Structure to design on (597 residues):
């Protein structure tokens, strides 16, 4: 099925320059003072490097040719001072850029999380959560790397390289021109490598996200893995993904490191040519050895920034690929936004009405003209065979999805024209598969209503018959639950989920057979608590057990996405040839099976 969240623009089509402009526009202004200090420090590093090369002429000529002790000492002191300045400048620029980079990563992590929360449930139904998390964790550093590479390459490497070239030109213009002539073929070769690297890098990021996603899924489902002896199957799957990622990373290594032989060959040719020329000039033209050593030192020192600049496009391509994939998530449009005329929901009687509602996942039709009313203060049970559309009905009420056609009303207000925040504040939801978050038991119950007091949390736990087992935990209500409550039983997790719904104190309860995970004794106790908690509230429940159905004031029987029967247990159970009567007479304790759409 297609997710309702689509891309507004094709970020993948943006050039490196376009991505760079966007990153600078979003981050440059907020960190302009820090970048200014870092750039100043990098300029000092570049200037000190050029000075070291330039002063070599005076060292050779004054110390070894003219044998001037005083001048040699002054030069040595100046070199010491320059190195001290260079060291502190390098330290400060590194610390400043690290702090800025960490802030950028934190900012985009917050921005990504906030943005992901605005996307519809449909997006997460199609996207694998493990892969989304892996993609975010791998790629978010790309924004920082683009900024840092731009600053360091421009302010340090490029300035250092240019200043050293200036020293070379001053010392020997003819030899400098000879070095420049050999550079264009090298630049062309590096550009060819970077183009081939771009596609390989994107494939590697995707493959790595699949590897991390598959590992995360295995860890989360470890009990199923071991119960069904899936170790060998999943190991083959993981090994295949890891091998693909390994081969892709090896290809990236071959491509990104090809500039090494090119640069080394170029440097070797240039240095050999310089020594050959210097030897000729010294033997036949009596050239100054100081000028030669200064030129040679400049050439040696220029090699390192030149090598980094040669790798810049390769590194920038990799960083931009990561940044581009982050922007693909951030630019996911349209979001399920409130309509311009949306108003806060005003709940009085909490009546819910479905009016000719149609819904489809992509091209797969799920609901076809569903119409019914759930009266305020009463329990309405949804029953029917697998694939009837019961879960879809439940998911449309809090607007996890929007219907393709038709309308849903709460107290006469079309929920499409109310704010989602106000709608969901009047709802409490308990799923069949309870989910607990990292934190303590108290934290998980308080998620139902953040302003709830400890007394209210404990009262909700008592109503859900969870208070006793909570007190039996090592730290009571302050006991960490582990990942998704792994330290608790299924029944205990469900009772905490019910307590979370009860503390919300909402006028509408949505229950996806909330007692299905409980044993018989716990089910009876929690059902009593739910009976009391549901009093005076509108309850829509997906029912699979007869014990739940018989308590409902109204039963909606669904089949193939349609409402086929409506009534209470007594009238429907005695109807001739009715679907509910047939389900009710099946030789099993459940009114329908749990597998459903």
């Amino acid at each position: 099925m297609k997710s309702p969240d689509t891309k507004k623009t094709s970020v993948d089509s943006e050039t490196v320059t376009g991505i760079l402009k966007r990153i600078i526009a979003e981050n440059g202004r907020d960190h302009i003072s820090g970048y200014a200090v870092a750039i100043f420090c990098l300029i000092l590093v570049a200037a000190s490097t050029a000075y070291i090369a330039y002063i070599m002429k005076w060292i050779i000529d004054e110390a070894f040719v003219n044998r001037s002790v005083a001048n040699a000492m002054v030069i040595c002191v100046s070199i010491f001072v320059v190195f001290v300045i260079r060291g502190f400048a390098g330290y400060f620029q590194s610390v400043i850029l690290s702090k800025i980079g960490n802030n950028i990563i934190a900012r985009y992590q917050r921005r990504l999380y906030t943005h992901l929360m605005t996307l519809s449930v449909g997006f997460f139904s199609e996207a694998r959560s493990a892969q989304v998390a892996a993609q975010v964790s791998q790629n978010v550093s790309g924004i920082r790397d683009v900024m840092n590479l731009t600053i360091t390459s421009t302010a340090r490497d490029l300035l250092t390289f240019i200043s050293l070239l200036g020293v070379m030109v001053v010392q020997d213009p003819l030899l400098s021109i000879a070095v420049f002539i050999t550079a264009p073929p090298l630049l062309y070769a590096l550009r060819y490598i970077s183009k081939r690297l771009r596609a390989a890098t994107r494939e590697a990021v995707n493959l790595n996200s699949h590897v991390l996603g598959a590992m995360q899924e295995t860890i989360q489902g470890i009990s199923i893995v071991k119960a069904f002896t899936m170790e060998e199957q999943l190991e083959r799957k993981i090994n295949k993904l890891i091998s693909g990622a390994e081969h892709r990373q090896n290809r990236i290594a071959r491509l990104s490191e090809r500039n090494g032989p090119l640069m080394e060959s170029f440097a070797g040719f240039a240095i050999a040519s310089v020594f050959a020329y210097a030897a000729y000039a010294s033997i036949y033209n009596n050239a100054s050895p100081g000028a030669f050593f200064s030129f040679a030192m400049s050439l040696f020192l220029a090699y390192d920034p030149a090598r980094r600049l040669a790798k810049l496009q390769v590194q920038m391509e990799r960083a931009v690929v990561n940044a581009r994939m982050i922007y693909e998530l951030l630019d996911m449009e349209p979001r399920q936004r409130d309509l311009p005329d949306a108003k806060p929901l005003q709940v009085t009687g909490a009546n819910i009405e479905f009016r000719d509602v149609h819904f489809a996942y992509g091209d797969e039709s799920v609901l076809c003209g569903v119409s019914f009313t759930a009266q305020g203060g009463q329990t309405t049970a949804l029953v029917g065979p697998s694939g009837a559309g019961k879960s879809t009905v439940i998911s449309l009420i809090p607007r996890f999805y929007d219907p393709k056609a038709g309308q849903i009303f709460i107290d006469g207000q079309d929920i499409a024209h109310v704010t989602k925040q106000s709608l969901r504040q009047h709802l409490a939801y308990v799923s069949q598969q309870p989910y607990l978050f990292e934190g303590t038991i108290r934290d998980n119950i308080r998620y139902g209503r953040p302003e709830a007091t400890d007394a209210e949390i404990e009262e909700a736990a008592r109503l859900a018959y969870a208070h006793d087992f909570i007190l039996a935990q090592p730290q009571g209500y302050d006991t960490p639950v582990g990942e998704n409550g792994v330290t608790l039983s299924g029944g205990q997790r469900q009772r905490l989920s019910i307590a979370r719904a009860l503390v919300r104190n909402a006028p509408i309860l949505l229950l996806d057979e909330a007692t299905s995970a409980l044993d018989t004794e716990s089910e009876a106790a929690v059902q009593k608590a739910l009976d009391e908690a549901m009093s005076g509230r509108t309850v829509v429940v997906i029912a699979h057990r007869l014990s739940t159905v018989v308590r409902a004031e109204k039963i909606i029987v669904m089949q193939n996405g349609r409402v086929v029967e409506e009534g209470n247990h007594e009238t429907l159970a005695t109807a001739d040839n009715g679907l509910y009567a047939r389900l009710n007479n099946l030789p099993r304790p459940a009114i329908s099976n749990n597998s459903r759409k």
Notes: The chain is about 60% helix and 10% strand. Residues 48 and 83 are 7 Å apart (CA to CA).
